[in-house]
């Protein structure tokens, strides 16, 4: 049950976050400009977040999607750390932790996926 709650919560978070980037909401544009990132990068991150959210909801690849989103969140953590954005650093770290926990709990599923491509 806890895994299911985590999956749905993360899917909602990444859908909203990715959607905000893809819709070019002003706060996202301002943030990416402040950080010195291009709009292409913003859209790329948005697409990855939405694809990751969809992947979270697909049982066969949910753990792998969680792992990939954890790696993506390491970039967000680094950005917030570099720019001294402490409240957002805490939020990004919590999201990364939740995604990482989901990925770790499904590591056997990830191994089966990897083995299927060998």
Descriptive account of the structure:
The chain has 118 residues and is mostly helical. Helix content is 85%, strand content 0%. It contains six helices and no strands. The chain has helices at 2-22, 26-35, 39-56, 62-82, 86-105, 107-116. Helix 1 (2-22) runs antiparallel to helix 3, helix 1 packs across helix 5 (86-105) and helix 4 runs antiparallel to helix 5. The longest helix is centred in the first third of the chain and has 21 residues, at 2-22. The protein is globular, with a radius of gyration of 15 Å. The termini are far apart. The mean pLDDT is 97.
Defining traits:
85% helix; single chain; mainly alpha; 0% strand; 118 residues
Helix content: over 70%
**Biggest sheet: strands, sense, closure?**
none
How confident is the prediction overall: mean pLDDT? 97
Shape: globular
Output the number of helix runs. Answer: 6
* Quaternary status: single chain
What gyration radius follows from the Cα positions, in whole Å?
15 Å
Low-pLDDT parts are none
Beta-strand proportion: under 5%
Order of helices and strands: HHHHHH
The number of strands is 0
Report the span from N to C terminus.
32 Å
Structural class based on helices, strands and sheet pairing? mainly alpha
């Amino acid at each position: 049950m806890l895994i299911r709650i985590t999956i749905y919560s993360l899917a909602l978070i990444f859908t909203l976050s990715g959607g905000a980037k893809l819709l070019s909401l002003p706060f996202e544009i301002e943030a990416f400009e402040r950080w010195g990132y291009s709009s292409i990068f913003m859209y790329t991150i948005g697409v990855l977040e939405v694809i990751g959210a969809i992947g979270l909801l697909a049982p066969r690849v949910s753990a792998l999607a969680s792992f990939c989103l954890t790696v993506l969140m390491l970039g967000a953590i680094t950005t917030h750390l570099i720019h001294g954005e402490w409240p957002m650093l805490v939020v990004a770290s919590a999201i990364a932790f939740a995604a990482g926990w989901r990925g770790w709990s499904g590591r056997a599923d990830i191994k089966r996926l990897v083995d299927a491509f060998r």
